[in-house]
Amino acid sequence: MPAAPASKPIVQAPVSKPPAPGSVDPTATPPSPNGQGAVKPVPAAVAVSQDPRPTFTPSTFINTMKAAWTYKQIAEAGAWPTLPAETLLKSGDRGPVVAALRRRLAMEGDLPADKKSGDLFDPDVVVAVKRFQARHGLPESGAVRAKTVEALNVPALTRHRQLAASAQRLMGSNFPFGQRYVVVNIPSATVEAIEEGQVVRRYVAVVGKVDRPSPRVETRITAVNLNPTWTVPVSLIKKDIIPHVRSDPSYLSKMKIRILDGKGQEIDPQTLDWSTQNAVNYTLRQDPGAINSLGQIRIDMPNKEAVYMHDTPSKRLFAQDTRFHSSGCVRVADVASFAEWLLRGTPSPTGGWARPDIEAAIATTARQDIRLDKPIPVAWVYLTGYATADGIAHFRKDVYGLDEPKAEPLPDAQVLDVPATSSIAPKRS
C-alpha cells in the first residue's frame, strides 16, 4: 500500500465525545484503610479515562497489526518533526515551534490536515494536544510539557516496533471473550470491566515493579474474599520479611504477621534464627485488618503464576502517574466498586451484593469468601502499542523492556487471512 499523501492525516484522529450516561463510572474515592469515611479522591490529573473503548477485544490483534503496518509506512516515508526537549507551550503561544507542533499533530491525525498550517497555539491545537495525550495515557491538560514532548519525539519506527511487539504477544491467544470480562493492561496500570463490548468501569491500578513484574495471564475470576488473610510468599519472606526483622525485631508484631509451623501452631518469632533463611520453612500469615497487605478485598483468579487482584492500605500510590510498585499482583483503586460489578448476579443472604452489602460485610471484620455465580474471564496483557476498532493507535511506555528492537517479522497485515472479529490470533509456526 503506498504511503499516504502528505495532505491527509496518516492515522485516523480520535473522536472526543462524552460517554453515554451510565456507560463509564467516574473515578470514585477509595475507602479509607479503616473503612470509616473516605480518603482524598485521586487528583483529576491522574484520573482514569472515561473512554468506553476497551484496550483488548476480539479484533485487537488484527487492528494492531494494521496499525503496525501503517507506522512502518510513516517511518519509511521519513521522520516527523521533533520539538526541542525544553519545549513548554500553552494556548496563545506563537512561533516556529508551534508551527512544528501543528505539523507533527497532523501527521497522526490528532489535528485535522487542513489545520496543520500556522504558528498559533489556538483552540484547535489545544483539542489536538488533548487527543494526543489521551492516546498516550498522559494527563489531558492541553498544554505541552516535558512528558508530552517526550512522547511527541518518539520516532515512528519505535511506534511501529511497539505495535508489532504487542501484536506478537497476542499471537496464539485464545482468550474466551464473553459478554462480561476484565482486562488489565500492565503498561497502562489500569483495570477495565467490560460489558457488551464497552468499558463500563475503569480503575487506576498499581502493578509490578520492574524487578518484580506482573505476568501476562489469561484465566477466570472465581471469587471475592472479604477481610482476607495474607500468606507471605517464600520469595517475599527472603526479599522483604527477613531483612525487616533483622533491622527491627518487633516488625512481625507491628504488622500482625504470625508464624505457623506445619501443624498450624503459632511459633514465637524470637525462637527463630533470623541470621539464616530458616523462616522460609514456616508459614507467615498476616491477620485481616487495616494494615493487611491485601487491604480488605482480594479477587481470586486461579493461575500458575499465583497472582491476583486486591485492595491495599497504600492508597496514596494510586495518585501517582507512574504506578509500578507491587511485587507482581495488581492493586485496584476503589476495589469495592469493582467487587460490586463482579458479584452482580451472585446471591447473598440479603439478596445480592450491592456496595452497601459489601461494606457491611467488611465492617464485621470476619473473613468471608464469596464464589461468583458465574466466573468472569480476565486477561492481564502487556500492550505498549495497540489499536482500537476505529483504527486509532494508542501507546504506553515499555516499562519492562519487552519490546525488542529486532522483533520477529509479522505477517503482512494487508494479506493476513484473519477475520477482524476473530478472538484467536494465529499461532507462531
- Give the neighbour order of strands across the main sheet: 1-2-3-12-10-9-4-13
Class from secondary-structure proportions? alpha+beta
Mean pLDDT metric: 85
User: Approximately how much beta-strand content do the residues carry?
Assistant: 15-25%
Give the tally of β-strands: 15
Number of distinct helices: 9
CATH-defined architecture of one domain = Beta Barrel
- Termini separation: 26 Å
CATH domain class name of one domain: Mainly Beta
Supply database-style keywords.
429 residues; alpha+beta; Muramoyl-pentapeptide Carboxypeptidase, domain 1; L,D-transpeptidase catalytic domain-like; eight-stranded mixed β-barrel; 23% helix
What report would you give on this structure?
Belongs to the YkuD family. One of its GO terms (molecular function) is transferase activity. Keywords: Cell shape, Cell wall biogenesis/degradation, Peptidoglycan synthesis, Transferase. Pathway: Cell wall biogenesis; peptidoglycan biosynthesis. By secondary structure, this protein is an alpha+beta fold. Among the domains are: 80-154, Muramoyl-pentapeptide Carboxypeptidase, domain 1 (Orthogonal Bundle), CATH 1.10.101.10; 180-229 and 290-381, L,D-transpeptidase catalytic domain-like, CATH 2.40.440; 231-286. It contains 9 helices and 15 strands.
Note the topology.
Layout: H1 60-77, H2 96-107, H3 123-135, H4 146-152, H5 156-170, E1 180-185, E2 190-195, E3 198-208, E4 217-226, E5 230-231, H6 234-247, H7 251-254, E6 257-260, E7 266-267, E8 283-286, E9 297-300, E10 309-310, E11 324-326, E12 330-332, H8 335-342, H9 355-363, E13 368-381, E14 385-387, E15 393-395
Parallel strand pairs: 1-13, 3-11, 10-12
Antiparallel strand pairs: 1-2, 2-3, 3-12, 4-9, 4-13, 5-8, 6-7, 6-8, 9-10, 14-15
Helix pairs in contact: 1-5
